[in-house]
Amino acid sequence: MNLLELVAKVRRYTRDLTGSLFTSEDVEDFCNEGIHRLRNIPELRNMVELHSPTDEVNLLPNQYHYFIALYGASRCFTQDEQHAIAQQFMNEYEFKTQELDLLINDGDLVIEGAENVGGEFDHVKNVYFLEDDR
Q: Which end of the chain is more exposed for a tag (fewer CB within 10 A), N or C?
């Protein structure tokens, strides 16, 4: 999805199809906040912000792009002081991002273009049998 599509999805979630409740700048900022939150997942730490309407979401697979719109809708409802609805959207966002993180950590989802964050296998060293006798 590009930024224009994300803004449209947030507007559908918030039922603000005419753009009279939330400014485009606010919705775009909220979408970028959602990207910042997704950066907490190590494989997604290099996601870029979206500034131009044609800027595409990078690293995140297509089927998960709507997570950013969930976050944006939650922030819009918070701004409008509809806290119960905002909390529902934020709960869904948090739950889905935890699922995403688990899929990545379990190796069931590979993020194309992400840096290798796993590194070498951290193993327990045998401290009982030292190689040199002292």
A: C
